[in-house]
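Cross-posted from the bioinformatics board.
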Amino acid sequence: MNAELPLAIDNNLPPQLRDLLDSADGPAFEKALDVIVRQRELKLFRALGQLARDLHDAVRHLGGELAHDGVTAVVADARQDLQDVLEMSAQAANRSLDFAERMRPQADTLSQNASEVLAWTSGNDAAAVLARQALEFAEASRAGLADMVLAQSWQDLTGQRIKKVAVFIGSVESSLLELVRLTGALAGSETPVRATQVSTQDDADRLLSEFGF
Amino acid sequence: MKILVVDDFSTMRRIVRNLLVELGFSNALIHDADDGENALAMLRKMPFDLVVTDWNMPNMNGIDLLRAIRAEAATKTLPVLMVTAENNRDQIIAAAQAGVNGYVVKPFSAATLEDKISRIFERIAASGAKA
């Protein structure tokens, strides 16, 4: 079988192997081949080990930054911050809507009363002038209240974007946890909780603590 | 006229309700739901004359709600107005193909809402007259 190997390969082989290839000593050839393969594997494993260590350090460094005191960049905190923004903006919008709903019936009543006064007064007496002013004011107020109600739709429009950012943060969190798990596996430590099984903040904290976070 | 307003944002449900009241619809006849699933459950319990729904919602979004409404015998002709921030061409086409009756892009005015609702019922009246 050795004789069937292409001659072109011979020039690329180490001399020791080339000599063995030319000899009839099959076991010696296989042994020499094993040594070469093992040497190459060792180099590969060393490179992989270095890569795993670098990756682990990078992830630990990132985790350390995330957990730094006073910085709201901790993923869970960031998500909670966004939720707080949603709730606070909803409260503000609801206060404006409360006001509009409270004032609209008063504007309606003023408009109706002014119209009744105008119905039984004539000319330009003081009551008629006042009633006309009241009617104009009530109608302008109704229009203004309607505009104010509509303006509160900013809360919905900005809120939808905030929700999208919260989803994005969730996906970054999952990727980070997967990276932590992978780094731990490459470094040789067993990960008792798979990233896909992490479902609560406690699970996430537990997993991170196993890697020094 | 009994109207169902569907939106996951409580403020938007309130805004749409306010605008509908401003247009003369009865506040007592306006109901609301916070997603498609809850809306569908309400539609199965009582009859409505119009559904005003958002597109982006958890559990069941607006387009799936529309498809579910069209798939059920009791609601297949119920007028549905989509009120959404989505003005993507493909999504508008998808809504049209699913059988939406009107489409309003947020933010909108009471006049726009009135115009779309009027057109929906004009078209329904016209198709009823032809039939």
